[in-house]
Amino acid sequence: MSVDLTARLGPVELANPVLAAAGCAGAGRELAQFFDIARLGALVTKSIMAQPRSGRPTPRLAESASGMLNSIGLQGPGVDVFLQRDLPWLLSRGARTIVSVAGAHTGEYAEVAARLSDAPGISAVEVNLSCAQATERERTFAAEPEAAAEVVASVVAAVRPDLPVIAKLAPDGADIVEVARACVSAGAGLLAMINTIPGMVIDTTTLRPGLAGSTGGLSGPAIRPIAVRCVYRVHAALPDVPIIGIGGVQTGQDALEMLLAGASAVGVGTATFRDPTAALRIQREIEEGLAEREISRLGDIVGLAHRPEGAAGLIRTRSRRAVAFD
Amino acid sequence: MRTIKPVQMRSPVLTVRRVDTYHAITVVAPGVAERFRAGQFVAVAVGGDTSSMLARRAFFIHDVKPDYGGTVEFVFEVRGRGTSWLSECRSRDLLDVTGPLGRPFPLPRDPVNCVLVGDGHGASPLFPLAHTLRRRGCRVDFVLGAAGAQRVFGALAARRVGETATFATRDGSLGLRGRVTDALPQVIEDARADVVYGVGPLPVLRTVTAIAAKYGVPAQVAVEERMACGIGLCMTCVLPVVGDDGVTRMLRSCVDGPVFRGEQVRFDDVGTIPFDALGAPGWKARPDDSASTEIGQ
Ligand SMILES: Cc1cc2nc3c(=O)[nH]c(=O)nc-3n(C[C@H](O)[C@H](O)[C@H](O)COP(=O)(O)OP(=O)(O)OC[C@H]3O[C@@H](n4cnc5c(N)ncnc54)[C@H](O)[C@@H]3O)c2cc1C
Ligand SMILES: Cc1cc2nc3c(=O)[nH]c(=O)nc-3n(C[C@H](O)[C@H](O)[C@H](O)COP(=O)(O)O)c2cc1C
Ligand code: FES
What we know:
The structure holds two protein chains of two kinds.
Chain A: E1 7-9, E2 12-14, E3 18-20, H1 29-32, E4 42-44, E5 61-64, E6 67-70, H2 79-92, E7 97-101, H3 106-117, E8 122-128, H4 145-158, E9 165-169, H5 176-185, E10 190-193, E11 197-200, E12 202-203, E13 208-209, E14 215-219, H6 224-237, E15 243-246, H7 252-261, E16 265-268, H8 271-274, H9 278-292
Helix pairs in contact in A: 3-4, 4-5, 5-6, 6-7, 7-9
Chain B: E1 7-19, E2 22-28, H1 30-35, E3 41-44, E4 57-65, E5 71-76, H2 81-87, E6 94-101, E7 113-119, H3 126-135, E8 139-146, H4 155-161, E9 164-169, E10 176-177, H5 180-191, E11 195-199, H6 202-214, E12 219-222, E13 238-242, E14 248-252, E15 259-261
Parallel strand pairs in B: 7-8, 7-11, 8-9, 9-10, 11-12
Antiparallel strand pairs in B: 1-2, 1-6, 2-5, 3-4, 3-6, 4-5, 12-15, 13-14
Helix pairs in contact in B: 5-6
Bound molecules: flavin-adenine dinucleotide, flavin mononucleotide and FE2/S2 (inorganic) cluster.
């Protein structure tokens, strides 16, 4: 059975629903050594800031069970080098490119977004709202509906009207449904969730925090149930807003969970560190998973988990085909 | 810019053997073996497909052979859960391996005198280097050390391959009592060294670099920073390195290293972001200097 994997995300249509999540695929060069990056649904870049940034001190990584904590601190070359060196290369490889933007304050987000607006070939801009607000320390933009909406509005105002804006949300802070609503009202056409969740490990040998930055962001399968719940709740509240589901997706089955919860596509982050070709494998596994359930179009599975119990008639797995008796 | 493209493969384990306190695993990995140059490493996924350990583990390549299309051997000591799982691997198990990774040891153009310094498992990548250097007509002298004799890796081989082999152990059970760096100055003098290659913990590499500098010879050192991917994606493995242009950058040791010129590594600042590093807090781009805004390669 042939399956149509086209991911329809409102203004953005992708050939398949598996994206490389921000900060886990660099700007594509490293992954291109292992496979043709044009085969990704899209590549979301490392979050770009106005200036070059050296990030946080090491150690930046601590493994935990089924998860990892990172405190990279958005090390990156800045928007100028990105536009000169990275973006043209990505586009020359035929990669669908979504550019993630970050900032310490609303003005920086807008500044970076404005620079991107003139660059041809970008499929969307993703707003990484998990940056600490320069004024409030500790608090991220994503943690407060008003702060998130202000950033999104400034990015929407800064880019060409036809360039879709994705708001990337996080589960800590204010209720994610409220933040989602605020971002959509501010002009975000799509939502992505979730970013990493703050966490901490303590090294029992040195008796000190295991990361130089004390706290880090938890990612990987350990956060998947949290991500699925976020997608589920936001899809229930805003059924017409396309969602990119991110958080611990390692297999096609994990991706199906996200789609069932209401995501129209998935982002793969941490899994790429262990398996550079994870995104392609997950694509294949989604296709197999849909075929097994006799679903011919990806879109047909989006949000299915929201239907009341007993209404599952549409879905049959080959192994458990419905049998009628007289 | 990297010239050698790494591969990812499911490699059958050929042999697992004990070498004193170390384990040596040989896998069949033709793509890795054929591209390998000394100083490069492999990154191994540990714990099986549904593992709760998400970061790959990095190991220097100790040896490659043409058997079975190409085999790769790495040597390790058990540290934590990942290496403990690896030590339980048996012949015919499959290991998910990426490699060869990183920038190899630069080789001298002329047949010069080379001193190879290895602390603990750091001796492992020095053997393929020694063979290459010998083939180029270089003189090779070894300085190997560890806490005790059992943990000095490759003492026999060093005696065989090297012009001389000098040992240093902290407990005095083999060779000099002390550290490899205590033995190094004499070896540099006796061998009339033109270059020093070093692998080991950062404090050792810092001292190796300082000693080499005192004798006016270059040091090429291979660092071991914590890694998750080994291929340049995650940015966990950075350390401050001064470029030829005098600018300090936080470079990824998995792709820009693991081998660096010793004097370019800011050893005293590892674990910090030096205030003058490119993109450090408060750092400002000089308007006339667009080239310096490159981070990494
Ligand atoms: C380029 C490179 C080459 C290496 N070559 C060798 C080698 O040839 N032989 C050898 O015995 N060891 C080598 N190491 C160190 C080896 O990678 C670690 O001992 C191993 O990752 C420990 O894993 P674990 O799960 O047993 O330990 P745990 O302590 O449980 O590991 C927890 C986490 O910390 C990381 N980690 C812990 N110690 C180190 C370390 N010293 N360096 C890097 N990451 C670490 C692990 O990768 C993991 O993510 C090398 C490291 C690097 C970066
Ligand atoms: C090392 C690392 C770097 C990341 N960098 C970014 C980033 O620059 N911008 C961003 O929006 N998210 C970033 N993320 C978050 C991921 O895109 C993703 O939302 C999160 O890790 C959860 O997905 P995962 O479990 O598949 O990794 C990063 C995550 C990791 C692990
Ligand atoms: S280990 Fe991931 S970038 Fe170096």
